[in-house]
């Protein structure tokens, strides 16, 4: 068979284009999922409290290195939040609600750059880029803390502690990046306009890298709601007060009643909107607790790292009692329907 005939026969072969591209797409998605799974293992339980990795302590008397601020926007890797399974940052980036920053601090030959920040619900997220001859995979591994650095927050209140989680230092083409999420513990979320952050070690290098993170909280739409659930004798009870809708988060404010001596028990919520979307749980803060002779009263603000659909008109809440004792099973309480329209 000559060359011309071979080429003619090949050109006459019908290629199933749709199936071909579908297979390519499936392969790409599979590769992304595998890559994401590998990266998530380095995430160190994002949404949980970091123990040593990025311990956030409030302390005074720190000596800070000089900081230079540049107003020009800094391009940030668009897939960073997706790669590290950061739901809030990922959603805010889609809506173009991430503040790009270029604030640089240099000490002991290590340059740290604050590249972006966001503040939605109770979550404050920041991203940093780190570079310098002293920073390498080896020095990060030998640095001690799992994240490869130690970071502190100081807001003028001694020993008050903010909860945080971190991705750790992740290698890129031009250095290393990291993302940290802090949870604002204050009942009044509008007070924090700047977040002072100081790194005291990076990749085993001791120093001071100080940043003043400008914060613009995304306005929350707060809806006063009513809804109650409880056991027959009301020793366990739940009373909803409000729902606050963010661009990537949802806040539920509610009160719970527990029997005296059972203050460690929980009333756990599973929340869906009327379109069937499940709100992902993030963290619940106890803002106030009062122990009476017969009951324990708690005021709770719970954060969900999911936004409520713009077309949803009500929430369906399934509460259940979680008793802190061996062998106990969750006890379902009456379902609550919460209207989101006034």
TrEMBL record:
Domain DUF4179: 50-130
Record bears the keyword Membrane: yes
Transmembrane intervals: 45-78
Pfam families: DUF4179
Keywords: Membrane, Transmembrane, Transmembrane helix
Protein name as it appears in the record: DUF4179 domain-containing protein
